[in-house]
Amino acid sequence: MRRKINNQSSALDRRRRWRRGSALIQMAVTMTVMSVLLTVAATALFRTYRQHGRQLERVALTAAWQRLARDFRDDVHAARTVNIDEDNTTRLILDKPDGTVVWLVHDDEIRRIQQAGGATDVDVSADQAGERYVFPEASVTFSLLTETAQADIAVVEITPPAPPGSVPPPAAALHARVSLDFRHSPPDVATSENPTN
Question: Could you tell me if residue 33 is inside a domain?
Answer without folding.
Answer: no
